[in-house]
Design brief:
- The complex is a heterodimer.
- By secondary structure, chain A is an alpha/beta fold.
- Chain A contains 13 helices and 12 strands.
- Chain A has a domain of 87 residues.
- In chain A, helix 7 links the parallel strand 7 and strand 8.
- Chain B has a single domain, classed as MetI-like fold.
- Chain B is elongated.
- At the A-B interface, helix 2, helix 3 and helix 6 of A face helix 1, helix 9 and helix 10 of B.
Chain lengths: 334, 304
C-alpha cells in the first residue's frame, strides 16, 4: 500500500463545488506535499485556500462537495475512506490550526479536556495518562505554568495562548501533517512571530508536512519551502519559495508582491490590485485574471487572454506559471 | 535563543491573570451571587417547599384524612391553626400533605420532557435537512398544537387516574417545546469554531453531541424547564380540580380549592390557603427560570 517514492500528500485535479453556484470553488487543483516540507498556499480571500484545506479533511461546509479529482495521503485514497477511518485520520494523522483560536476552544470545557480528546480517541489513553501527556504538550508549546493553564477555560486565555493550546491539541494525536489556516492573522504582531517560530520548531522536531495557508507574504518568506499562488480556485504559479518571491512570474503574484509591505514602494504609496476577485470564478473563458491584469495589455495579448486559458507551464527549476505573457516571453527568448 | 525563550515566556505570562483555584463550594457561592435576585428567592422558596412536603407526614399536627363532623368549618384556633374544612379535617395538615402529588408529578414530567426533548432536538439539529430532522419537527408541529389537558382527560378516561397516566399524558406533549428549543440552539452552535475544531480532531458525532453541543445549550434549556415546571404545576392542579388527578380522601391543593367552593363566604381561608400554596409554588419555579434566563441571555457572564 505504502509507496515510498510518493510524497506524503498528493492532490490530483481536485474539484469542489457548491450546489446553486455556477462555478466550482476549486477547479482542477493539483499539489504535493512531503514530510518535513512547508508548502505555503497564498491568495486573496475567496480564492479557495481554506476550501482546499477543508477538502483534505473532508469537512467542507454543508452543501459543498468534492466533485472530482483524487487526494492520496500516505498512499491511502482519502476520498474513498469510510467515515470511521476518516475520523482516525483527522486529529490522528492530519491536524489543523485555525484563524480564530479562541473561537475554536469550547467555552464550557477546560483546556486540558480539549487537548486530551485526541489522546483518548486516537491513542486510547486513560484519563490519568492523558492528563500527564497534556502537561507535557503544554510545556512543549511554550505555555508557562502548564498545571495552572490546563485548568483554565478558553475565555481566560489570550489569543496567542489560545493558539498555543490549539497547537498542543493538534500535536497531541502525533500527526504527520499540519494544516495551518491563517494561524497568525487574528493575533498581535508581537505574538505572530512567536506562533510562527513555534510552528517551525515543531515542524523540525516532528518532521511534519506543513500546509501553511496565508495571504501574508512575510509569513511565506519566513517559513515556506515552496509556494503555490491561488487565484479564483486554481493555481496560477507554484515553485520554490525563493524563486517565487524573488522573481515572481505571474502578473497576479507580481501584483501581490507589490501590494505587500515586504517590498516598499519607492513613492511611499500603498498599492492595491484594482478590481475584485470575487466573480473571477464565473468567467467562462479565458484567463481568470485577465480583467485585472496589467500584463495582458502591455504585451498586446488581450484578445488571447480573453479567449483561452493558459496551462501551467514549467521553467527550469520546477517553477510553474499559468500565463500567456510569460509563455510568449519565453518563446521569443528561445 | 535562551534569552529569547525566557522573555517570550515572561511576555506571555504578563498578558493574563492567573485565576485562582476555587473549591466547589466557592464556585457555587459565586454562581448564586451572580444570579438575578428572583433566582435566589425562588431557590429559597422551592427548597423550603420541597423539604416541607417531604417531611409532611411526620410533622402534620393531625391526620389529614380524619373527619370530625362536630368541629366542621371551625375558624382558626389553637387546636386547628388554620381551622377545619367542611368535613372537620385539619386544614393545616391537609395543606402540608396536599402538594406532594402535584409537585411530584410536575417534577417527573418536566425531567422526562427535558431529557427526551433535548436529546431529540439536538440530534435533529445535528443532522439538519435530513429525514430525521424533517419528520421529528413535523411531529413536534402537530403535537405542540394539542393542549396537554385534553390528552390527559383522554388518557385518564381510558386508564383511570394515577401517577403513571398523568405523567405519560403530560410527557407525550411536554417534550415538544424542549425539542424545538434544543434544535434551534444546536443550529446556532453548529457553525461555532469549536465544533469544527472537534471534527478536525477526529471526534465522533456522538462524542461531539455529548461533550460539546449539550454542555453549550443546556443553560437556556434549564431556564425554560423551570418555567415549564410552573406551567405543569398549574396543569396538574387543574386536572385534580376537575377530579382527574388525586382522588378523595387524599389531600390535594387543587382538590381543596374545588371542595371549598360552596363555603367561600363562610370561611374564606379554606380557599385562600390552598390557593396561596399553589401560587407560591408556581411563583418560586417561575422566578428560578426567569433568573436563569436573564443571566443566560448575556452569555452567562455572571458565571465564573
Amino acid at each position: 500500500m505504502n509507496k515510498r517514492d510518493e510524497p506524503l500528500l498528493v492532490i490530483e485535479d481536485l474539484k469542489v463545488a457548491f450546489p446553486g453556484q455556477s462555478a466550482p470553488v476549486i477547479d482542477g487543483l493539483s499539489l504535493t506535499l512531503d514530510r518535513g516540507e512547508v508548502l505555503a498556499l497564498v491568495g486573496e480571500s475567496g480564492s479557495g485556500k481554506s476550501m482546499t484545506a477543508l477538502s483534505l479533511m473532508r469537512l467542507l461546509p454543508s452543501g459543498g462537495a468534492i466533485t472530482g479529482g483524487r487526494i492520496r495521503f500516505d498512499g491511502e485514497d482519502v476520498l474513498s475512506l469510510p467515515d470511521r477511518q476518516m475520523n482516525r485520520l483527522r486529529g490522528g494523522r492530519m491536524a489543523m490550526l485555525f484563524q480564530q483560536p479562541q473561537a475554536m476552544l469550547d467555552p464550557t470545557s477546560r483546556v486540558s479536556a480539549q487537548i486530551a480528546e485526541p489522546l483518548r480517541l486516537h491513542r486510547g489513553l486513560g484519563r490519568r495518562a492523558a492528563m500527564g501527556r497534556v502537561l507535557d504538550l503544554l510545556r512543549d508549546v511554550g505555555i508557562p505554568d502548564p498545571a495552572v493553564r490546563a485548568r483554565c477555560f478558553s475565555h481566560e486565555l489570550s489569543g496567542g495562548m489560545a493558539q498555543r493550546v490549539m497547537m498542543a491539541a493538534a500535536l497531541s494525536g502525533d500527526p504527520d501533517m499540519l494544516i495551518a489556516d491563517e494561524p497568525t492573522t487574528a493575533l498581535d504582531v508581537t505574538v505572530q512571530a512567536q506562533i510562527l517560530r513555534l510552528i517551525d520548531e515543531e515542524r523540525r522536531k516532528r518532521n511534519l508536512a506543513t500546509l501553511l495557508i496565508t495571504h501574508d507574504l512575510a509569513v511565506v518568506a519566513a517559513l515556506a519551502d515552496r509556494v503555490a499562488v491561488m487565484y479564483a480556485g486554481r493555481i496560477v504559479e507554484e515553485g520554490p519559495a525563493k524563486a517565487v518571491l524573488e522573481s515572481p512570474q505571474h502578473p497576479y503574484t507580481q501584483a501581490l508582491m507589490r501590494c505587500s509591505l515586504l517590498v516598499p514602494d519607492p513613492h511611499g504609496q500603498l498599492l492595491s490590485i484594482p478590481g475584485s476577485g470575487t466573480h473571477a470564478r464565473e468567467l467562462t473563458c479565458g484567463c481568470r485574471f485577465h480583467p485585472r491584469c496589467s500584463a495582458a495589455s502591455q504585451h498586446g495579448l488581450v484578445s488571447r487572454c480573453m479567449r483561452s486559458e493558459p496551462a501551467l507551464k514549467p521553467d527550469a527549476d520546477g517553477h510553474v506559471t499559468r500565463c500567456w505573457a510569460v509563455e510568449t516571453e519565453k518563446e521569443t527568448a528561445a | 535563543m535562551r534569552i529569547d525563550n525566557a522573555s517570550q515566556a515572561a511576555a506571555a505570562g504578563s498578558l493574563l491573570h492567573v485565576p485562582p483555584r476555587r473549591t466547589a463550594a466557592r464556585r457555587l457561592w459565586r454562581f448564586l451571587r451572580g444570579r438575578h435576585w428572583t433566582f435566589r428567592t425562588g431557590i429559597v422558596i422551592l427548597v423550603a417547599l420541597v423539604v416541607t412536603l417531604i417531611l409532611a407526614p411526620w410533622i402534620v399536627p393531625h391526620d389529614p384524612a380524619v373527619q370530625n363532623l362536630i368541629a366542621r368549618l371551625s375558624p382558626p384556633s389553637a387546636e386547628h391553626w388554620l381551622g377545619t374544612d367542611h368535613l372537620g379535617r385539619d386544614l393545616l395538615s391537609r395543606l402540608l400533605v396536599g402538594g406532594r402529588f402535584t409537585v411530584t408529578i410536575a417534577m417527573i414530567t418536566v425531567i422526562l420532557s427535558f431529557a427526551i426533548g433535548t436529546l431529540i432536538g439536538v440530534v435533529a439539529g445535528r443532522v439538519v435537512g435530513g429525514l430525521f430532522d424533517e419528520i421529528t419537527m413535523r411531529v413536534v408541529d402537530v403535537l405542540i398544537s394539542i393542549p396537554d389537558v385534553v390528552v390527559a382527560i383522554f388518557l385518564v378516561a381510558i386508564f383511570g387516574p394515577g401517577y403513571l397516566t398523568l405523567i405519560a399524558s403530560l410527557t407525550v406533549i411536554g417534550w415538544t417545546p424542549f425539542a424545538r428549543l434544543a434544535r434551534g440552539l444546536t443550529l446556532a452552535i453548529n457553525s461555532q469554531g469549536y465544533i469544527q475544531a472537534a471534527e478536525v480532531l477526529g471526534c465522533s458525532r456522538s462524542f461531539i453531541v455529548l461533550r460539546h453541543v449539550i454542555p453549550n445549550i443546556i443553560r437556556p434549556i434549564a431556564a425554560v424547564s423551570f418555567l415549564r415546571f410552573g406551567h405543569k404545576l398549574i396543569t396538574v392542579g387543574a386536572l385534580s380540580f376537575l377530579g382527574l388527578g388525586v382522588q378523595p380522601p387524599a389531600a390535594d391543593w387543587a382538590l381543596m380549592l374545588a371542595d371549598a367552593q360552596p363555603y367561600v363566604e363562610r370561611l374564606p381561608i379554606l380557599m385562600i390557603a390552598p390557593g396561596l400554596a399553589i401560587f407560591v409554588a408556581a411563583l418560586s419555579v417561575t422566578w428560578i427560570g426567569h433568573g436563569l434566563e436573564i443571566e443566560s441571555r448575556d452569555g452567562g457572564s455572571g458565571d465564573e
